[in-house]
Amino acid sequence: MSGLLFQGVEGVGDLSASFRSEALEGHGFSRANMEFKSEAAALAAEGIPALERNFPQGLKPGGIFSAADGTAKAMPFQSAGTPALLLTTDHCSPTTVAADDKLREECGVIAIHGHPDAARQAYLGLYALQHRGQESAGIATADGQHLANIKGMGLVSEIFTDDVLAKLPGPMAIGHTRYSTTGDSALLNAQPIRVDSTKGLIAIAHNGNLVNLGNVRARLERDGAYFQTTSDSEIIVQLIAHSKAGTLVDCIADSLGQVEGAFSIVMMTRDRIFAARDPRGFRPLSMGRIKNADGPDTIVFASESCAFDLLRATYERDVLPGELVMVTEDGVTSRQYASGVPQSSCIFEHVYFARPDSRIFGRWVQESRDQMGRQLARESAVSADVVVPVPDSGVTAALGYAEEAGLPFRMGLIRNHYVGRTFIEPEQRVRDFGVRLKLNPVRNLLEGKRVILIDDSIIRGTTSRKIVRMVRGAGAKEVHLRISCPPTVSPCFYGVDTPSKRDLIAAQKSIEEIRQFIEADSLSYLSLGGLLNCCVGEEPVGYCTACYTGNYPTQWVDVEEILPAAAAV
Ligand code: SF4
Known about the structure:
The protein is an alpha+beta fold and 569 residues long. The protein is built from 21 helices and 29 strands. The chain is elongated, with a radius of gyration of 24 Å. It binds iron/sulfur cluster (SF4).
């Protein structure tokens, strides 16, 4: 069953404003049909019963929009729905997954306050955060009077040449690098977003994903808000514009309190920088400082602390979950706009997304990954001759595994770092080719050996099978695959591009069935308890592990539970 499921507290829903348009691509819909402003007409043009904006035919809180085999209709259903959340089913997220079959982080953000060449600093910071998004990037700067903003498609270094940076004056900057699905709206939704609001000019850049955007957006539109983009971030700016709180910082705090989901945000007005994390602290956001001998310090915020090194900034601390930090000429002030919500930082940042040279959630990523490898060796030892990582992300865990197991570590697979996205368009035939383009075995290290391969995830399984075949084809006698996290069984709704549940091999098959599918001699995953132990530093941290457990920290309703109810209507 294909579909999108909605719940709205007010009993109405704006279908097009609520769904992720990418979800219907490949199901008989073109992107043109998904634009927010033309929903009813466009749906009708597809042969779908025209749906009026507020669903007069009775899409009560909860409803299914079925998009199977290119047809669609709205069906009311009875459900004890209470939370006001957008719910999505198996193809709720963009499904374009690159050739190496990894989950994709959607964004990285940077902010600079008090530097004579803030744009260049933001550029360097984004350069260090490029792994968090390669499809678009943007920098906005402010000089006290004006707010300039330049965005483009491509890598940071391709967009921001010297000439372009020269058009971004001022001592303050925010920047953003984004991974998104391809499509016409990609540049439109590139960030920072600059909005001329009733509260003045505001630029915003956001890492994460709001989960109640449909309801909030519909309410704002009824109140007269006009959206320029389909981005979550603009919802926050519109909430700020519509807030009745007294000061701008109160308006921001008020707005952040109304949205649910994952967001690490940097914002800029003509003369101030703001940085905030959602109350659960899903995505990382750190604060750093550059000491200036002849003036106030430069304050820096970045998704990951690895960005500080290039700027010669010193890591100071993490922005706390539920914290809103403001930087002005007078210095740094902070407030907790939300408290009492359990922390659920994304554990997959430690497993895969973040760079090993970053310190996130109070712990070095390198340390966590090394421990994951060691724990994996303790949990799933096997007789072998060499430990080989699937580069690059499996390297640190493989080093830990090899050391713990007392086995030699060998770079038996070499990654070509110069393969562009040309080869990772979502056509199966091309994707297969992409794996071979990206990885090549080192035959003399593998021939006749019993090999333990270390990787950080199996998503669909097809890539893992190709890698196992590749290693065996290079002469390995045995191939034992070890994964440095538990099986990925559920999609992410918090800013990570995940395939649908039906495409997650661990959601469909047992570990033994996966082993057979990928043709390994043995297969083991790190246990959840083992993973959690590996990611805790000096301070206790609450982690989201929903992609391994299906237990979402925000209020979600399992679509499987209500589908029978829908079918009965
Ligand atoms: Fe991270 Fe997984 Fe939670 Fe998403 S569901 S935030 S990827 S741990």
